[in-house]
Amino acid sequence: MAKRTILTAPDPRLKAKGKDVDKVDGDIRRLIDDMLETMYAADGVGLAAVQIGVALNVVVMDIAQKEGKNDPQVFINPKILWASEETAKFEEGCLSVPDIWEEVTRHTAIRAQYLDRDGNQQVVEADGFLADCLQHEIDHLSGKLFIDHLSRLKRSMALKKLGKAKRQKELA
Ligand code: NI
Fold it and tell me: From the CA of 21, how far away is ligand 1's center (Å)?
């Protein structure tokens, strides 16, 4: 396993559209292991392959970390099949948009299909935090960040704050 570098906004590679994985083989499982290692090292709950510069539709997630547990989940080629009409605001952050937290409106429940680590087709019914995380990660696969859901003003403020933090880091 190897830790990879997480790209941060406004890196143009974060806007890449992911391709579906043709075959879940050893290379993909190695990618998944690298992504999990990278996500845990960064204290994140989710990571899309696009965020490490690999334009494939692969997502890893571990929402049990919130309760101090470990339950790694893998979603390959995830597609939303159904989304509730009901929406709610969720406070979100992103490893590619460090130290910015904003409320985003999401569907409160979704149904999605995906391939698991063994390449088997699965369907997940998700609500609450899992539904929020899945929508956030699936957005990454089409080059969309959570700040793209914000008003133009809030989005430009977030990018400004991010740029300032980056410059300070370079000077330090
Ligand atoms: Ni993210």
Answer: 20
Residues in Cβ contact with 149 at an 8 Å cutoff, skipping those fewer than 6 apart = 104, 105
Domain limits, the chain? 12-171
From 41, 71, 47, select the one nearest 59 (Cα to Cα): 47
Name the region of 41 (left: φ>0; alpha: ψ -120 to 50; beta: rest).
Answer: alpha
pTM: 0.94
Among all residues, which ones are annotated catalytic?
A: 137
Centre of ligand 1 from the C-alpha of residue 4, in Å: 15
- CATH architecture label of 12-171: Alpha-Beta Complex (3.90)
As to burial, measured by CB atoms within 10 angstroms (0-12 exposed, 13-18 middle, 19+ buried), residue 3 is: middle
Cα(166) to ligand 1 centroid in Å equals 18
Tens of pLDDT, residues 8-45? 999 999 999 999 999 999 999 999 999 999 999 999 99
Q: What mean pLDDT do residues 57-72 have?
A: 91
CA of 133 to the centre of ligand 1 (A): 8
